[in-house]
Amino acid sequence: MGFHLLPSHLGFFISLVLLLHAPVAQAEDCPTLRLDQKGGSMDGVPTRDQGDLGICYAVVASQIYDSWRRANPSPADASIGRFSSPLYASVQSALDEKSNKLRCPDVKDAKKNTYDILIEIGHTCQTLEQMFGQGACSEEALQKALWPSDNKNKLVRERLDAAKKTLALDRNSLERLRAKKKKLPQHDTMVSGMEESLRNTEELIAELQLRLDAPGATSVNMVRKLYNDKLLLELCTKWSSNPTEDCLLGELGAEPKPIVNMKDQVKTLAVNTLSDFKSKLDSSICKQGGKVQFAPGKCAPSCQPSQVDGKADSHMNRIREQISKPGNLPVALDICSAAFRPDGLIQAWQAKDKITVPANGSWLNHPKCGLHAVMIIGQQKNPVTNKCQLVLRNSWGPACGGSCNNKRCSCEPGSGNILIDADFALTNTRRYSVISDKKECK
Amino acid sequence: MSGRNLILISSLVSILIPVMGLAALSETYLFNKTQITFAAEQDGKLLVSQNCVQKDKQPKCEALLKLARASTSGLSLEGGANPGALICSRIGGKVVIGQDAKANERAFCRFPDSSMIAADSILTQAIQNDLKDAGK
Question: In this prediction, does ipTM exceed 0.95?
Answer without folding.
Answer: no
